Hints:
The chain is an alpha/beta fold. Helices cover 30% and strands 18% of the residues. The chain is built from 5 helices and 7 strands, in the order αβαβαβββαβαβ. A 3-stranded parallel sheet has the order 1-2-3. A two-stranded parallel sheet has the order 4-7. A two-stranded antiparallel ribbon has the order 5-6. It is globular, with a radius of gyration of 17 Å. The mean pLDDT is 82.
Amino acid sequence: MLVQKESVHAVVRRCNAMGKRVALGGPYVTTTIEDLPDVDHIFLGEAETTLPQFIETLRRELPGVPIKRWSGRHLSLTPVADFHLADLKRYSSMSVQYSRGCPFNCEFCDIIEIYGRVPRTKSNQQIIAELDALLQLGWRGTVFIVDDNFYR
């Protein structure tokens, strides 16, 4: 996601100029933490599991508080995605992520840099709940199962 680097820096500069707090996360942040612009919060790994703590901290936070790093590595705690927030008519397929991380060191892949060497998976019940959520919203199209590795 390095193609987003310049725009991320530009958006952060604009937010800083307006005195807004900034939280960053995702592949670019996780892989290039030393090159990040001035931000208030950094999310590494699974933000889904640390978001509730972040929101509570944000409610109590005072300006000038040092940067906080949030790190999560527990897909088993990831809630069902809020698919209802998406305009499903604008998508040709939906994604349900099963795993993150990989124990291998393939030269062409950056999964271990982004998600680490320890594979984490969702339970069967979590995957079924996500598929059921899509079904209940009327989705009848393609579902892409996102899996960082297929060795299991």
